[in-house]
Specification:
By secondary structure, the chain is α/β, with parallel strands linked by helices. The protein has ten helices and 16 strands. The protein folds into two domains: 193 residues, FAD/NAD(P)-binding domain; 164 residues, D-Amino Acid Oxidase, Chain A, domain 2 (2-Layer Sandwich). It binds flavin-adenine dinucleotide. Flavin-adenine dinucleotide binds next to helix 1, strand 3 and helix 8.
Length: 391
């Protein structure tokens, strides 16, 4: 599909990015009757990524967008039953029921989530792939915003929502706070169809499992991500966020000599689907967007270290709040739009800013020498707490 400003009337809302944030926002805003276009730079949506954690607040947000979204996403996700924590030398520190077993928390493939949100988009939403936003003009205020894409096409919209991740173009053109901050941690992530692996030992023998191996200021974890998939991720300290020529070769080298399951899991992964990225965040700011008709959502607005597992949840909550404040607003009414976006930003920044700081602290601690002992104590306390009889 190609978009052109020359022969189309302006969209009410253009969303940049078809990640969980952009897709959920498209659902929520289309439900309010707005004409919505999503512009995604990828040529096709491929099965990449690992697993995302979704707990009750994430499902509650999906439920508000459309109850069937929460039900259907949950149906493709898995609640962890067993949990194993070990040191690099094989010492087992925790092997028990997962502290999250029986709760509403689930793991779910990132691509499974993206696929489901995409397939269920309301018919009125138009998704434009191969549309890499490179620039836009939001002035004068009484003219539509003109979006410019790398493929030479352009498009007009009355409101622009940058859901284009932690390197957001929409953010750099409005907030202008420079590049995101590298946290000194590199990650490698992948997903493996379960049938590619021989039957696995504990914690995966008794249904859904989560396993964590900690050592040398590195972490490697594996989990059942539902839909017959296992997901894995590894983190290590690295002075720069440069990607290597081969993510497969690098991750094998970083975790060489670790438990044999680590190498098996990595080698069973389709090499081109392994994601190698630095972990970035930003200092919270008091305004997202231009204060008029451009705003941000998800990682573009509040990039957060993955240590709290809240990236997708916060993006869904942003989508809900944005749709609530814009409900009933005429997209041509410039002052009403500005007032609604201000309200959205104030409400969400109040929630997200402290979490960005908390995630940063947790993320730093995750590579400390006492990480294994801290996790053991935390898992034991959480399980004991869950097993405590109700008084
Ligand atoms: C490919 C990918 C895989 C991920 N895998 C995991 C994972 O396995 N586990 C996990 O916890 N988190 C993962 N994340 C991050 C997590 O999904 C986010 O923290 C969170 O869900 C917030 O989503 P978001 O939609 O705000 O941002 P993102 O998920 O980052 O999505 C942003 C989207 O915008 C698109 N985009 C960026 N710039 C432009 C542009 N200029 N023009 C058009 N489109 C643009 C990107 O291609 C992407 O599709 C992944 C992100 C991506 C992009």
């Amino acid at each position: 599909m190609a978009a052109s400003s020359s022969n189309t009337s302006p969209l009410d809302i253009a969303i940049i990015g078809a990640g969980p944030g952009g897709l959920s926002a498209a659902h929520a805003l289309a439900n309010q009757g707005f004409s919505v276009g999503i512009f995604e730079r990828a040529h096709a949506l491929h099965p990449i990524g690992a697993a995302v954690g979704l707990a009750e607040p994430g499902y509650a947000a999906l439920q508000k967008i459309r109850p069937s979204l929460a039900t259907q996403v949950r149906a493709q996700a898995t609640n962890p039953k067993r949990q194993l924590l070990m040191r690099l030398n094989g010492e087992i520190l925790f092997c028990d029921e997962s502290p999250l077993a029986g709760t509403s928390f689930t793991w779910l493939g990132w691509y499974t989530l993206q696929t489901y949100l995409r397939q269920t988009l309301p018919a009125s939403v138009r998704l434009f792939l191969n549309h890499h936003l490179i620039d836009f003009s939001a002035e004068p205020l009484d003219a539509p915003i003109c979006l410019k894409f790398q493929n030479q096409s352009d498009c007009l919209a009355r409101i622009l929502v940058g859901a284009d991740g932690y390197r957001s173009v929409a953010r750099s053109k409005t907030v202008g706070d420079g590049a995101p901050l590298y946290t000194g941690t590199m990650t490698w992530r992948g997903v493996v169809p379960r049938q590619r692996l021989a039957p696995l030992a504990d914690p995966f023998t008794e249904g859904a499992g989560f396993q964590l191996i900690v050592g040398e200021q590195k972490n490697f974890w594996m989990m059942d991500a539902g839909a017959e998939q296992l997901a894995w991720g590894g983190t290590a300290l690295q002075s720069n966020p440069d990607k290597s020529e081969s993510a497969l070769a690098t991750v094998l080298q970083v975790f060489a000599g670790w438990a044999s399951i680590v190498e098996k899991m990595i080698r069973a992964t389709e090499p081109t689907s392994i994601i190698e990225t630095g972990v970035f965040d930003r200092e919270p700011v008091s305004q997202w967007g231009d204060g008029h008709r451009v705003t941000l959502l998800g990682d573009a607005a509040h990039p957060i270290r993955p240590s709290l597992g809240l990236g997708a949840t916060l993006a869904f909550q942003d989508a809900v709040t944005l749709a609530q404040v814009l409900a009933g607003v005429d997209s041509k009414n410039i002052s009403a739009v500005a007032e609604a976006l201000l309200h959205y930003e104030q409400e969400r920044i109040r929630v997200t800013a402290p979490l960005q700081h908390q995630a940063r602290q947790e993320g730093t601690a995750s590579h400390a020498d006492d990480q294994a002992d801290r996790l053991k104590a935390a898992f034991e306390a959480a399980l004991a707490n869950r097993r405590k009889p109700d008084l």
